[in-house]
Amino acid sequence: MIACHCPVCCSDDPRNHRLRASILVRDEGIDLLVDTGPDLRQQMLHAGVQSLTAVLYTHFHADHINGVDDLRAFNFAQEVVIPCYADERTAAELESRFRYCFLPPDPAWAKPSLSMHRIVSPQTFGGVRVTPIPVLHGDLPILGYRFNDVAYLTDLKTIPDASLELLRGLKVLVLDCLRYEYHPTHLHVEEARYWARRIGAERTILTHMTHDVDYATLAAELPEGVIPASDGMVLDL
What we know:
Keywords: Hydrolase. This protein is of the alpha/beta class. The chain has helices at about 40-45, 60-65, 70-80, 90-95, 160-165, 190-200, 215-220; strands at about 25, 30-35, 55, 80-85, 115-120, 125, 130-135, 140-145, 150-155, 170-175, 205, 225-230.
């Protein structure tokens, strides 16, 4: 965190060095990115990402969308318009805040060139079936996503019963876990443990942690099958 000198921010443990929450799902030539936070360029360079099939948005908060301009690099490399998927409100916010990204493409790819698609039902990309999972970020309806047997639920406080039915039989659940103390719009540690038990995935990975959480300390406290995420983590499924 900027200008912070707490033990986590000053830690030598690289697992305590965190960029904004995001994931990339890869499967036989399919590359699906979830969210474009302000750290997107650094994340893509670190992961060596060469192309994108589509971008899926969870919601319109700045820490999940404000790196959108760096998608231009993929337009330039692939010479294609990149499709984006979001719920109605997030799509409208993106089209308003970043209107220039959704205009007809520039022949020289001098700006990001994106197409927006409202996602209301499952979509298939190659061998990956993507199911939108409605959740509540405080009072704000947003989306998580299920990719075959993996689900990604960040920035949430409540999971409606209908969405729980969409999360049965998971191998991996990536779940919001902001800090130890209560927060009105995010899960804290005990709430994350509760939802991990209730969903019952084979493995649960906790993400979106602040500098209030030391990786090693939290890892030692969690039950079997639940671990904290760390930047650059790769899961082979």
